[in-house]
Design brief:
The structure holds two protein chains of two kinds. By secondary structure, chain A is of the alpha+beta class. Helix content of chain A is 48%, strand content 18%. In chain A, the strands form three sheets. In chain A, strands 1-4-5-8 form a four-stranded mixed sheet. A four-stranded antiparallel sheet of chain B has the order 4-5-9-8, with no helix packed on it. Chain B has a three-stranded mixed sheet with strand order 3-6-7, covered by helices on one side. In chain B, a hairpin with a 5-residue loop joins strand 6 and strand 7. The radius of gyration of chain B is 21 Å and the shape is globular. The chains are: A alpha+beta, B alpha+beta.
């Protein structure tokens, strides 16, 4: 708040994302991408970093970059390296699939400061887009969230001042995981918005559409589909609110964040698919937003930890 | 050996069928360029040169009698080709298999002259034969009328109607069908009252350009009606059954191709120090997909054989087959993208195109809700 932000809580953020995603999932994804980049700073900035970057982030975008070709689900596979030289780190390597990396000014990047130590060798750095040796590579031509594409980040002897190390050396994995615990409910909130937006759209369509010669309003098959969707959306919404509330109460639950992300994104995929079925051939046209919603939902099942990784996390918590 | 209609039931392909399958696979592997498909998709253009080569090799019209330029095989052999084609590339495979949707109608209900004039050019890569299934202009579900003219000419009149027609703008001839009447009419695009009102930008199937056509007071001479329209089966049923079975063949190929790519990726991709195929979570996903694809294949093959054997129960079987196989295709492509992770989302990888194509063929003509409604009518008779 002292730097001009809203001081918003996690639940508030989720409500905002949900409402925006009902109409424009990619716009919500843009905001979530910014918060994803900002969260590690919020959690781990020292006072000087806070002073320097928070005012800038009132009007400029942040981003988060962990993924590499060899490091998707497994953060230990990161090979981009930071070598210490004097009072600088020299970064070399390529990151991929960084949401809005090409429009962000400040990016939290996870690289290896100790290549031998797997995830324990990961450290986080605050990268400014102006740093020498930093450039943007390919901007992805992706299936969904096309309004907020992902970009490739290239580090060629990129010079990073040592004061841009976030947290301690070797603390990168912990920073990333603590961040994701707090941002996964946001992806889930976007999914709830997608599901709700799709259901709202279906309800409007049902009023005038037909199944063969029968009005859709008279089709019990459609009634049951709509009911199933409404149940799934509401269940996902409550999971999201619960996970977000835990964060706001200082009782972050890795398990609940993972459950919310997994359930809500799977729900969004299923609901958009079902709404397309109700719309029939009409729904295949770009004039209706639902085929876009479906493509957007598919991204959410994969980003910030695939839903398979979420299941790994949840089962670990169940089995202890 | 048991028999089903005229066909012996063996559940094994004959040597000839295996040769057809192999030839189709080799052709697709060699000629279907996914980068080209991606380019064509942006412009909504048909893969003409690949189509012409497929015609030269006899893949298009494989089910027509030799006297009409075909190979005298059946729908089953055509399905083997469609499966191989869509397995390699969903878009190109669908595009090639939709070029002559009207041919099955003509083969069953047309006269010698019509068959000769229209089918031979298709097999030479010089023509298409799409079908326009009329809907009313207001979309209110009331059947638009094709009527027999009363002026003594023996001709017909399409009063008013519209339809989405794949290849409507590329074809000179179009077969017009109408729910609720037994007429099949062969019309020419240049005729008075026939208009193409716009290319549709669909979620998938973009290299099979689909146009909206409007028909208004179109007069059709007697000679352009399909003469055998009042036989035991009407042209509309023939069309829909073949359409459903061909769509199922496409869905099967799309699924198998997606599965093969996902399996390959899972066996190559390493995370956490091992291949992701070594994780049981991935193995179970693959096992489920494999099981469903096997079930889909058996349905499609059975329906296609049933068509060739003139099975009496084909209406229901074709509905069940299309409903199941297209749902398998959508599920398989969604999960195949999931197994690929981020790379599966990128256009240049063509997995996401498979999903869009699968969803499009599922709902383009008869949505899966329509299939369910029709199936339930068949099985519940109160």
């Amino acid at each position: 708040m002292e730097f001009g932000g809203g001081g918003a809580h996690s639940l508030t953020c989720c409500l905002v994302l949900e409402e925006i995603a009902r109409f424009s999932p990619a716009s919500a994804h843009m905001l979530a991408g910014h918060w994803l980049g900002y969260t590690p700073l919020e959690l781990f900035c020292n006072p000087r970093q806070r002073e320097k970057y928070f005012p800038r982030l009132r009007s400029e975008m942040a981003a988060f970059s962990l993924t590499e070709p060899s490091a998707g689900s497994d953060a230990g596979g990161v090979i981009t390296e930071a070598r210490k030289e004097g009072n600088h780190f020299i970064l070399n390597g390529t990151k991929i699939y960084c949401t809005q990396g090409h429009v962000a000014s400040v990016i939290t990047v996870f690289v290896k400061t100790d290549p031998q130590r797997g995830v324990k060798g990961l450290s986080a750095f605050i990268i400014e887009k102006e740093f020498s040796g930093f450039s943007i590579g390919k901007i992805e031509d992706q299936m969904g969230m096309r309004g907020t594409p992902a970009a490739e980040l290239i580090f060629q002897d990129c010079l990073v001042p040592e004061e841009n190390l976030l947290g301690q050396e070797g603390e990168g994995f912990n920073i990333a995981m603590q961040t994701l615990d707090r941002t996964r409910p946001k992806d889930a909130a976007i999914s709830v918005g997608i599901g709700q937006g799709a259901l709202d759209y279906a309800l409007e369509y049902v009023k005038k559409g037909r199944l063969m010669t029968e009005p859709l309003t008279k089709s019990q098959g459609v009634h049951f589909l709509l009911s199933d969707m409404a149940i799934a959306i509401e269940a996902a919404r409550l999971l999201v609110y619960e996970a977000a509330s835990f964060i706001d109460e200082g009782k972050v639950s890795t398990k609940h964040s993972a459950m919310a992300k997994c359930f809500a994104t799977d729900m969004a995929m299923r609901v958009t698919d079902q709404v397309l079925d109700i719309l029939g051939a009409e729904g295949l046209l770009g004039e209706h937003p639902i085929e876009m919603f479906m493509r957007d939902a598919k991204l959410l099942q994969i980003l910030e930890g695939t839903n398979q990784i979420q299941r790994v996390i949840i089962s670990r918590h169940l089995l202890g | 050996m048991s028999h089903w209609g005229d066909k012996p039931v063996e559940f094994e392909l004959t040597e000839t069928q295996k040769d057809i399958q192999k030839a189709a696979r080799e052709f697709a592997e060699k000629e279907f360029d996914s980068d080209l498909a991606l380019e064509l998709e942006k412009e909504q253009k048909f893969p003409k040169s690949i189509f012409e080569k497929a015609c030269q090799l006899g893949f298009i019209g494989i089910e027509y009698p030799e006297s009409y330029g075909g190979q005298s095989f059946g729908l089953f052999e055509d399905i083997l080709v469609i499966e191989e084609f869509t397995k390699k590339d969903s878009g190109i495979g669908i595009a090639l298999s939709l070029t002559d949707l009207g041919a099955s109608v003509l083969l069953k209900h047309g006269d010698e002259k019509q068959k000769r004039e229209l089918l031979i050019p298709i097999t030479q890569g010089k023509g298409f034969l799409p079908v326009a299934l009329l809907e009313s202009m207001d979309g209110e579900g009331q059947t638009p009328m094709i009527i027999k003219r009363r002026d003594g000419s023996g001709g017909y009149l399409i009063s008013e109607g519209k339809s989405w027609v794949t290849y409507g703008s590329l074809s000179q001839f179009i077969i017009v069908l109408n729910r609720g009447s037994n007429f099949g009419l062969l019309i020419e695009k240049g005729w008075k009252g026939v208009k193409i009102t716009g290319l549709k930008k669909l979620m998938g199937m973009r290299i099979s350009p689909t146009d909206e056509m409007v028909f208004n007071q179109v007069e059709i001479p007697e000679g352009n009606a399909l003469p055998n329209s009042m036989e035991e089966q009407d042209p509309l049923s023939t069309y829909l059954q073949v359409y459903r079975i061909k769509t199922s063949g496409q869905a099967l190929g799309i699924s198998q191709g997606a599965f093969d790519q996902a399996l390959k990726h899972a066996k190559e991709r390493e995370q956490f120090g091992r291949k992701i195929a070594q994780f049981q979570g991935i193995q179970f996903m693959l096992a489920d997909l494999y099981t469903q694809i096997e079930a889909a294949r058996n349905l499609v093959y059975r329906a296609a054989c049933g068509y060739d054997a003139k099975s009496p129960d084909l209406e229901k079987l074709s509905l069940v087959t299309k409903l199941f196989t297209t749902e398998v295709a959508v599920k398989t492509t969604i999960d195949a993208i999931q197994i690929h992770g981020g790379v599966g989302l990128m256009k240049e990888y063509s997995m996401e195109r498979r999903l869009r194509d699968a969803k499009t063929i599922q709902n383009l003509k008869e949505s899966n809700l329509v299939q369910r409604a029709l199936i339930s009518r068949k099985i519940v008779s109160i």
